[in-house]
Amino acid sequence: MKKNWTIAVSAALLFATIASITQAQIIDSHAHLLPPGMERALNPDVDASAEELRRQMKEAGVTKAAIYAMVQKSDPDAMQSYNDFILNIAKESDDFFAVVSVHPLDGEVAIEEVKRAAALGAKALKLHPFYQGFEIDNPNVSAVVKAAGEVGLAVIFDSIAASDGGATGKFVDLAIANPDTKIVLAHMAGYRFSEMILFAVFAKGPFYNGNVYFDLSAVAPLYANSPRAEELVWTIRQIGVDQFLHASDFPIFDLKSSREAIESYNFTPDELKKLLYDNAATVFGL
Ligand SMILES: [Zn+2]
Q1: 31 alpha carbon to ligand 1 midpoint, in Å?
Q2: Is 20 within the bounds of a domain?
Q3: How far is the centre of ligand 1, averaged over its atoms, from the C-alpha of 70 (Å)?
Q4: Which CATH number characterizes residue 127's domain?
Q5: Average pLDDT of 133-142?
Q6: How many domains does the chain contain in total?
Q7: Is 19 a member of any domain?
Q8: 121 occurs within a structural domain
Q9: Distance in Å, CA 255 to ligand 1 centroid
Q10: Residue 112 CA, ligand 1 centroid: distance in Å
Q11: Is the pTM of this model over 0.70?
């Protein structure tokens, strides 16, 4: 009799676990939306529109996505109108949260926009050293990172930085100089992901407080089922799974194959839950 009872409880627990996995909430921390008329500027084959993103979210089982703006220097009107476009879409729907953009070399204009966007509900700021054309160690960058932290915005950097061999050290310096800002390195530095172990080294010392996170867009699909797949998982665990976020980089990568990629690695169910939802909810305060 006792044995039957144990089997029944085990079966119930198993079904509950399966149900929680299949119905789990999933956050995609990296998607670009482009304004009307520009939808194919990032990928000529895919509309970077809210409609197409929603379609891919449904297909991939993603329940919430970060939507990104991306602006250029010295055009405050274009900056505000792109950010407002993103903020308005996010405000109208629980499916999205807003990630705005400024150009750090715009100085005070950039800092004022960070404050304005935070007051309007933005959750993070995206900066792109390559696309926007700035050096990571420019003092204006640190000023924007500091201002973002003060109003509760995380700062996401594209971290591929192919032309800057010292990028990893510069990101370490930036994180140490701005301990109260959460910094996300999108793509985990791509082909240089193994260098990110530097953050595990610094975490052992007194100067760095662990305020750097990483999104796995592009890097997870790139190394899925590759000779470096095990090394990627090992590096993530050395740094700490709590620091990593699932992401696609829509419209460049699609949401379904990005999710399949992350699930192809040998993460435990508990680790996958953190990667797919919990960590992003913490970093972006959702
Ligand atoms: Zn991107």
Answers
A1: 7
A2: no
A3: 9
A4: 3.20.20.140
A5: 98
A6: 1
A7: no
A8: yes
A9: 13
A10: 24
A11: yes
